[in-house]
Amino acid sequence: xxxxxxxxxxxxxxxxxxxxxxxxxxxxxxxxxxxxxxxxxxxxxxxxxxxxxxxxxxxxxxxxxxxxxxxxxxxxxxxxxxxxxxxxxxxxxxxxxxxxxxxxxxxxxxxxxxxxxxxxxxxxxxxxxxxxxxxxxxxxxxxxxxxxxxxxxxxxxxxxxxxxxxxxxxxxxxxxxxxxxxxxxxxxxxxxxxxxxxxxxxxxxxxxxxxxxxxxxxxxxxxxxxxxxxxxxxxxxxxxxxxxxxxxxxxxxxxxxxxxxxxxxxxxxxxxxxxxxxxxxxxxxxxxxxxxxxxxxxxxxxxxxxxxxxxxxxxxxxxxxxxxxxxxxxxxxxxxxxxxxxxxxxxxxxxxxxxxxxxxxxxxxxxxxxxxxxxxxxxxxxxxxxxxxxxxxxxxxxxxxxxxxxxxxxxxxxxxxxx
Length: 419
Description:
This protein is of the alpha/beta class. A hairpin with a 5-residue loop joins strand 3 and strand 4. Helices cover 36% and strands 13% of the residues. The protein has a single domain, classed as Alkaline Phosphatase, subunit A. Helix 2 packs parallel to helix 10 (234-247), helix 4 (100-107) crosses helix 12 and helix 7 crosses helix 10 (234-247). Mean pLDDT is 82; it is low at 1-44 and 212-237. It comes from Singulisphaera acidiphila (strain ATCC BAA-1392 / DSM 18658 / VKM B-2454 / MOB10). InterPro entries: DUF1501, TAT_signal.
């Protein structure tokens, strides 16, 4: 029996544009559908990077606090944090009191803190600075492909037709993942993914899968060029959806997450996707609110608490499922804040700031020099570590991808991973 376009439309599959260009699907998709029928793939060696972007410019000086420097205390009469309240790192710096989860990970050797990270001739515009971080180019164009998009194109395809990366957010796709040859979907919830694909909430899913199996058995070569568009968009998402369905209403082996936290919910979703057996190697989430121009103290404390508790719960969840050894978390922001507090008990846009890597694969510790508060440039400490060195480390030492292709030139990696 031949599966017709009419039958597929009746099943609801046409709404996903799967058959927008003909009565059969591309051969690679058919192979993916069959592969998914075998159930989750748990590749113990499949390395995963989870990127958390702190939107707004996180105040690095009140995150990794230079409590041993008198200039810090004199420059922030209202905002300076006292050494006795901090989570100690060494005699010079400590973590914000709200970063208890990070402090526990540091004690366990699972937190790497890279100090004084930035780039030459820093830009204090949110849009421009984030574009620099996203593209790993100091003068990026609007259509410049992102550093992760270029790395994805240079690496092997994810097995089984799974997406090469997933953007876990309601926001638009960040430039870091934009402009490559391989399509990267965005989703905030699994339910949203189902609706986007035109999948029924309950009934009909088994019939749809059976229809895909019938198509897979009939599929031959397809030369219609319009199918290239399909392959770059919804089809990639559809190839992963069968596995997503299996975890939609189940959460076995789950760990507790903070209540009322958007970031925690997104990381919980990432953990569920990882447990489902997706071969997707990169997940990207955004967490906003760090543009603290006024009344910063409580606002920043609450943000850091949510970040710390969410990441700690996420890593604990992965440990319980046996996936902790293959996941690294990268946390960055587009810039730090100025040394001196402003008249509104806040801080204005600055330059260099710390970057964090977390997880079992990380070689924990403090990297890079302390911020030099005695020698400022335009009111800010100068950067000492180019952020592209962190990217090169993540690409080469963790994801095993060619960093120079992504970054445009070689950068010396840092010893941030266990050998």
